[in-house]
Amino acid sequence: MATKKSKITDTTARRLSRTSAKSGGIEGYLKRIFGLMFGAVALTGVAAFIMMASGAFVHLFRPDFSGFSGTYYVLLFGGLALSIWAQVRVFHIKPSTAAWLLALYAILIGITMTPLLWASLHINPMSIIWAFGVAALMFACMALFGYKTVKDLSFLGIFLFIGMLGLILVGVISLFIPLGAGFSTAVSLIGVLVFALFTAYDMQTLKNAYNYISDDTQKNQMAVLGALHLYISFIAMFEYLLSLFNRE
Fold it and tell me: What is the C-alpha separation between 40 and 163, in angstroms, rounded?
């Protein structure tokens, strides 16, 4: 019996090894996640550049530039709705379809981010480079921490989710009611902290998910979902840092 069990174990191990090699193992899984995420960031940058270079960003404002236009709000809340829908339905659609939705969302973010970038160019152009560099460094450090740490970060989930909802609510209110400079600064600092922690939390969650999901299709779906989560955290940190660097 011991010999038979050993043979079965060896056979199973070989099959798992072949499956892991075929899918690229966790290294291939993480490459897919970061490849999708970096691709989404690139699309956001291209979309924002085209909007500003072509002058199309003026359609995001009212004719007298006294506020945002209806087009801006449609794109902003449409992107938010798309993000929520994609996260809910990601395991019910093809990975390729989910990747296209991520691309569409990244383009929408690039368009709606244009007013902030345009204002930053007029106040302090270098702030865009500084904000991107600091956000990239923070993202890399927190992602590495989330991947390497042995401490269970799951307890952060509920607090981060509540913090994110609060930030979204404050962001929506600020579109209609001006916030004081001090309050805006505090919100930006909290936003950077929340999404930095989200990066570590999501990274650990994605690593653990790989060990529990055996189906390759579901791993590809999880890779797109992970890319979306990490993309949101990076872009949010960039935007909050950019706001901080351009306080007048």
Answer: 24
Please say whether the beta carbons of 80 and 202 come within 8 A: no
pLDDT tens for each residue of 75-91: 999 999 999 999 999 88
Domain containing 163 equals 26-245
With respect to residue 144, please indicate whether it lies within any of the assigned structural domains: yes
Rg, Å, the chain Cα set: 21
CA dihedral 33, 241, 151, 13 (to 10 degrees): 10
Dist. CA 40–CA 107, nearest whole Å: 8
The number of folded domains in the chain is 1
Structure tokens at 107: 């383009």
Tell me phi and psi for residue 231, to 5 degrees: -60, -45
Average pLDDT over residues 45-74: 88
Residues 110-130 pLDDT 10s? 999 999 999 899 888 999 999
Number of CB atoms found within 10 A of residue 56's CB? 12
Helix (H, G, I), strand (E, B) or coil at 61: strand
Q: Is residue 17 part of a domain?
A: no
What are the φ and ψ backbone dihedral angles of 55, each rounded to 5 degrees? 80, 5
95 occurs within a structural domain: yes
C-alpha count within 13 angstroms, C-beta hemisphere, residue 149 = 18
The answer to whether residue 19 sits within a structural domain is no
The CA-based dihedral angle spanning residues 94, 99, 103, 105, taken in that order and rounded to the nearest 10 degrees: 60
Q: Which residues, at least 6 apart from 83, have a Cβ–Cβ distance to it below 8 Å?
A: 105, 228, 232
